[in-house]
Amino acid sequence: MGILNITPDSFSDGGRYFSGAAALARARQLAAAGADILDIGAESTRPGSLPVGAAEEKARLLPVLKALRQELDLPLSVDTYKAEVATAALAAGADIINDISALTFDAAMAGVAARSGAGLILMHMQGTPHDMQADPHYEDVMAEIAAFLAQQVAAAAAAGVAPDQIVIDPGIGFGKRLEDNLTILRELGRLEELGLPLLVGPSRKSFIGRILDAPATERLEGTAAAVTAAILQGAQIVRVHDVAEMVRVARVADAIRDGAPGA
Ligand code: HH2
Predict the structure, then answer these.
(1) Which end of the chain, N or C, is less surrounded by CB atoms within 10 Å?
(2) Ligand 1 pocket, 45 CB below 6 A?
(3) Which pLDDT belongs to residue 122?
(4) At what angle do helices 20-32 and 54-71 cross, to 10 degrees?
């Protein structure tokens, strides 16, 4: 899953693809590099960020989404927790709702997912993007993530979302300490008990920067290590900025996990 941030303030590429033309060019680049899905976001959820209104989010998102729908055959995911934005994005041709709040920020979101039949990514977060890194705390991070995701999967099902629409995500960096992010990558396989596809998003995140003492522009190898660990622990989808490189990393990690292609 390649990341397209149409934002002025995302943590690693804020402002680079904020104009429509730059966003389209970036999307074409991600598709050509081998992305299987594009995840398009128009509101940064980096630690400390503040929400943007639905009108502004739609104004950033919809022109790019409509243009991409015309020219790309890939599944398009929209990174939003707002039902109003998701509804408009689905009407414009999006296939997947990536809800970092796992249906908890907008009571109307579950119904939107159920009625549309679209894919639905449910991600764990402790707190909100504005306050999540203030003082995150867990007794047993994997057990708490699993319990929360199970509860939100049940909420989705109660609203009429079919199980085969749902993907779950432990939410690397969303209300997590360094050791929590590392535990998630080490023990991700514990989430397989939920019986749903797993998505993980470690790309360029600050836990890598903490380990390597490196800025977001120098986290490619650290991202590769995290992607490999996630795949070996059962991740089916990895959400990344550096698609060309991570496609190669994922192919080798897949072969280690599942055997050589064609063998
Ligand atoms: N991470 C980010 C945003 N959306 N969605 C899912 N499902 N999983 C993630 O780990 C995830 C996500 C944050 O990364 P990015 O989009 O690069 O930055 P920003 O929020 O600053 O736009």
Answers:
(1) C
(2) yes
(3) 98
(4) 50
Instruction: Output DSSP code: residue 198.
Output: B
Q: Count other Cβ atoms within 10 Å, centred on residue 218.
A: 13
Query: Model confidence at 78, in pLDDT bands (50, 70, 90)?
Result: very high
**With a 6 A CB cut-off, is 99 part of the ligand 1 pocket?**
no
Say what the pLDDT of residue 19 is.
Answer: 86
Rounded CA-CA distance 260/80 in Å is 36
Helix, strand, coil tally for the chain in percent (to 5): 50, 10, 40
Cβ proximity of 110 and 101 under 8 Å: no
For tokens 């390597």, the residue is 212
DSSP 116-182: H--EEEEE--SS-TTTTTSS---SSHHHHHHHHHHHHHHHHHHTT--GGGEEEE--TTSS--HHHHH
Q: What phi and psi values does residue 27 have, to the nearest 5 degrees?
A: -60, -45
Query: Cα of 263 to ligand 1 centre, how many Å?
Result: 35
Count CB-CB contacts under 10 A for residue 58: 20
- One-letter-per-residue 3-state SS of 98-114: EECCCCCCCCCHHHHHH
For residue 20, pLDDT over 90 is answered with no
Percentage of the residues of the chain whose pLDDT score is greater than 90? 90
As annotated, the active-site residues are 205, 239
